[in-house]
Give the backbone structure.
Amino acid sequence: MKEKTIVSDIDRNVYDIKDEEKDAYRIEEGLTPEIVEKLSKEKNDPEWMREFRLNSLKIYNELKVPEWGPSIDGLNMDEIVTYVRPNTKMSAKWSEVPDDIKNTFDRLGIPQAERESLAGVGAQYDSELVYHNVRKEVEELGVIYTDMESALTGPFADMVKEHFMKLVPPTDHKFAALHGAVWSGGSFVYVPPGVSVEIPLQSYFRLNAPGAGQFEHTLIIVEEGADLHFIEGCSAPKYNVANLHAGCVELFVGKNAKLRYSTIENWSKNMYNLNTKRAKVEEGGKVEWISGSFGSHVSYLYPMSVLNGKGARSEFTGVTFAGNDQNLDTGTKVVHNAPDTSSYVNTRSISKDGGISTFRSAVVITEKAKNSKSSVSCESLMVDNISRSDTIPAMDIRTRYADVGHEAKIGKISDDAVFYLMSRGLSEEEAKALIVSGFADNVSKELPVEYAVEMNNLIRLEMKGAIG
Amino acid sequence: MAESLLSVKDLSVNVEGKEILHDISLDINKGETHVIMGPNGAGKSTLGLTIMGHPKYEVSKGSITFDGEDVTGTDVNERSKKGLFLSFQAPIEVPGITLSEFVRNALQQRSEKRVKFWDFKKEVEENMKLLNMDEKYLQRDLNVGFSGGEKKKAEVLQLLMLKPKLAILDETDSGLDVDAVKTVSMGISEYMKRCGGALLIITHNTRILQSLEVDKTHVIVKGALAGEGDGSLVGEILDGGFSRFE
């Protein structure tokens, strides 16, 4: 067979479009209490938030950078401009959005996505919500879907204060503290008791300015018996300066409520993605995480579920794709803290061109969690001989009355399967892309069709060097 | 005068530095049906895979010419596009890709044109009916959890859909019950009728040959050609075994 197809440098044209910087406002580089004060003032924070930020900064300065995962030595915090605000006000009308921003959104398909029956668009461009539109029918149900800044001062201000960074406190780790100090943008969703939101809500995050970090905060509260599907998708253009993403997602799932949280993250290949996501599930409630991790230089991502009420459930379905010069450390954590709780984890990871993909999980079953069940299954696929895949599952079980299972499989792409597909006329690239997207179908079959198509396109892009 | 389709000349093949096929030559003309027989481990499947272009089998000597072109060094997908087909002895299971997606994808890659979904659906369903295959297999992952018989039928379905000029059938009849052999055999003769193709059949028994007229039989023993004859040789071997060739 002739030499292997060269796919190391992919064409990311569609995703790596950057607009000329036209920022109305930009804070100087580096992080000091003065900068945080200034940021807080600019954002018209309530007093408690100003204090929260300053306190978080203190914690940030006291905590050490984690040393147990991939190296983040390439990340220079002094270079990160923490706050970049586009020169446009919040807008509910598409026609009022400036043209260059519109162009970028057009290329990412935002208006189309909205047309295609998605409930609302809260698209984050740089650090603030530019375009926000919730369909009437969702509002009529009493559902609140707004940006975090408005939520802080709006009619739900007390609820935000009560929940903000309670699941992920700034003391959790250094980047949670950083987030607490400089967070900006993000979504707030409140679903009242018994309300079932039929169409998924989606938000699209994107980084634009060189050297800009992104610290969006997502807070979702789904009340008793309510039901919501929230979709978050990310894509960022590529720059030479190290980029940092330290967002935070907090999900509160009430009694017998259900929340599905789907994410396709596609960061540029210089991004340090240090994101923290956590859900607390009450009695009989259920959280479902669907998570696709693409792009970034280094990722630490372990969405966590705390099953806090009797019979609470969690499901985690994930796929991670690590290519050249990528070290993606992803997985999940589940804490069973009540009887009859159950968790199910099913992940696939792919590594290629020397990429490193590590699956890390932790299942904790406390003494209170009698008759709990947990099943963890992770599979890894290495596309070539120079890539790496590791599995690090941890279990901490404090009761004898629990049913815990773990299954791990690591394998290489099968030459025979490639040959078989090629013998019907498929090219080597096409055959491998089919096998890899087939491998990732645990996630794609859980996504709405337009997202599944996007994910398959991403896999093809990563496998072949262009969208076919 | 018969037109040559496949010409294998003095072919020797190495695997990991060891020669396992020695100086094999055979010629197949358009419209002909050839049979390869031989004891287990004689190198029959290796010959099929080498003609198809499996990278594990290194051609150390000789050449393979298909439809007037030397294809010895070309990739398997190029050979496939030129009209070569191999029905696998053990079809590979590929999770996450449905049979329908795969066949349509293959058709599109071969023609480099979009294949209209309704045209495809009509044709594939017709062929499945012929093969007595449940349509629900179209939506199942390629060969995953298929019985031995269904896997072989799926191979013949691909043969009927892709319409190659020459099909190598590697024990397409093994592991099938009597009815399934009959169905598969019918599918193969249907291919010959429709496409006027050619066949190279690797087999252990005659049942699959019942509805076909065999033009030539080749016997391979220990990696080398040990005998040749017409269709009647198949019956002789089934009665007398391979001892006279060793």
In short: The mean pLDDT of chain A is 81.
